[in-house]
Write a structure and sequence with these properties.
Elements (H helix, E strand, L loop, with lengths): L5 E5 L3 H12 L3 E5 L9 H4 L3 E2 L10 H12 L5 E3 L4 H13 L3 H15 L2 H9 L8 E2 L3 E5 L5 H13 L4 E3 L1 H7 L9 E5 L3 E3 L2 H14 L3 E3 L5 E5 L2 E5 L4 E3 L2 E4 L5 H7 L7 E10 L10 E3 L4 E6 L2 E10 L8 H15 L6 E10 L6 E4 L6 E5 L9 H12 L18
Parallel strand pairs: 1-2, 1-14, 2-10, 4-18, 6-16, 14-21
Antiparallel strand pairs: 3-9, 5-9, 6-8, 7-8, 11-12, 12-13, 15-18, 15-19, 16-17, 17-18, 20-21
Helix pairs in contact: 1-9, 1-12, 6-12
The protein binds flavin-adenine dinucleotide.
Length: 413
């Protein structure tokens, strides 16, 4: 493989920067294109900062499907809809329902586990090259719940056990010992001791981006509107300029669909919208991320304060912020911790999600010099470096010893 090739990457989120760094390790010349500056408030900036290698079981499960009506009716619940978007999202929902059978659920779980299991070592390969300055904490991640109906959680615990995921069931006393400032609303929980969290995802992303520049990487602040071809070589077209590349990788997160549609490949990517707010100077109240499992949100202690993050809202990329979702986060945080000061920073972000809850990684169906790396839904922060390592390996035509077929875009054709 000729390592002198110019590779263009569209998107400077955690996926784009990770792809770029692993391509550089293999000797390729890399340019990243993004319509924003790196560190802008996209998903890779505002997420909950969990490094969650245990989270193989996704939302495509019959038990979750059954709970949807009740979740939609509950004002404290984890799920919401923008009703004007429902007709547009109907085909996605139908594909999602098709993917909730037991065998499809296990297909997703096994193939998420395959990459999640390699996620922390891949991060460490990149972290070795930057100074992390306490931006990553190794204190585990704690899930708690306050309803005693264990049905769906039994399934989760059993599937994770089957996959060999390390987990520790915890009772009220264990939870109090781990997080004494939590109000005692909980019934029980599960603890993942080897999980980590970021104290500031934006700072980590920018440190990785600086490393990319230091290694000779180039950045172009451009909105890529289309991809043309000269022979087999892709040409990236922005408002006023074109850029010729030998190969490209599309890492635009939830915004990737516009470009893949233009490449005549109908990939059913949509978004699960999520929110965060900060409670400044309160991060001392928790030692690690705590997820209130049955309300579908969590709180992470960060440099910005306590970051309260969550909810899944189906509503596309263009609908406005839902104030009720923000209020839901604030009320839930107060339920967990009691009095908190006035919140700051109301943020809306877009998880890129395919209906089978597996990412798309690999070459495009129609163009051999175009690669995809998007659709990592709730786990794109955790999966950045391992995905970059895998896709850069595909571009360099290396054997990864992994079964990569389940991530191919051709599964939708
Ligand atoms: C509320 C919330 C909480 C989350 N919490 C976690 C968590 O705790 N742990 C975890 O692992 N994951 C989490 N995630 C998921 C994770 O944040 C995402 O999966 C991940 O950040 C996606 O990264 P990305 O690089 O694919 O996309 P993005 O971060 O969205 O980056 C895409 C980039 O592409 C650029 N772009 C788009 N279109 C174009 C174009 N046409 N031309 C040029 N540039 C373009 C954008 O400007 C952007 O910079 C969370 C997500 C949300 C919303």
């Amino acid at each position: 493989m000729n390592k002198n090739l110019n590779i263009g990457i569209i998107g400077a989120g955690i996926q784009g920067i990770s792809n770029a760094l692993f391509l550089q390790k293999k000797g390729f010349k890399v340019t990243i294109f993004d319509r924003e500056k790196p560190g802008s408030p996209v998903a890779s900036y505002g997420n909950a900062g969990h490094f969650s290698p245990y989270a193989s079981l996704s939302l495509n499960r019959t038990d979750i499907l059954m709970d949807v009506p009740a979740m939609l009716l509950s004002s404290t619940g984890p799920l919401a809809l923008k009703w004007n978007y429902v007709p547009k999202m109907l085909p996605w929902f139908l594909k999602f329902i098709f993917n909730t059978t037991k065998s499809k659920m296990m297909h997703t779980a096994k193939n998420m586990h395959q990459i999640l299991d390699l996620a922390l070592p891949a991060y460490d390969e990149l972290f070795e090259e930057i100074s992390l300055e306490n931006l990553v904490e190794n204190k585990g991640i704690l899930y708690v719940w306050n309803d005693k109906n264990l049905k769906s959680r039994e399934l989760e615990i059993r599937v994770r056990e089957e996959l060999g995921v390390k987990q520790q069931l915890v009772d009220k006393k264990d939870i109090h010992d781990l997080e004494p400032n939590l109000k005692k609303f909980y019934h029980a929980g599960v603890f993942y001791p080897y999980a980590r969290h970021a104290r500031n995802p934006k700072k980590i992303l920018l440190k990785l981006f600086e490393l990319f520049l230091k290694k000779g990487g180039k950045f172009q602040n451009k909105n890529i509107l289309n991809i043309n071809f000269e022979g087999e070589s892709p040409i990236l077209v922005s408002e006023n300029e074109s850029f010729s590349c030998d190969k490209i990788v599309i890492t635009c997160g939830a915004f990737s669909k516009k470009l893949t549609d233009n490449l005549d490949e109908k990939i059913p990517l949509d978004t699960e919208r999520g929110y965060h707010v900060h409670f400044k100077d309160c991060d001392h109240l928790l030692s690690r991320p705590v997820i209130f499992h049955n309300r579908g949100f969590g709180i992470t202690p960060m440099e910005q304060g306590l970051r309260v993050v969550g909810t899944v809202e189906f509503g596309g990329l263009d609908n406005p912020v839902s104030k009720s979702r923000i209020n839901n986060l604030i009320n839930n945080a107060k339920y967990m911790l009691g009095n908190l000061p006035e919140h700051e920073d109301e943020w809306l972000g877009f998880r890129p999600t395919l209906p089978d809850f597996l990412p798309v990684m690999g070459p495009s169906k129609n163009y051999k010099n175009v690669f995809y790396c998007f659709g990592h839904h709730h786990l794109g922060w955790t999966l950045g470096p391992i995905s970059g390592k895998i896709v850069s390996g595909m571009i360099a035509k290396e054997n990864t010893n992994l079964n990569l077929d389940p991530y191919s875009s051709t599964r939708f054709s």
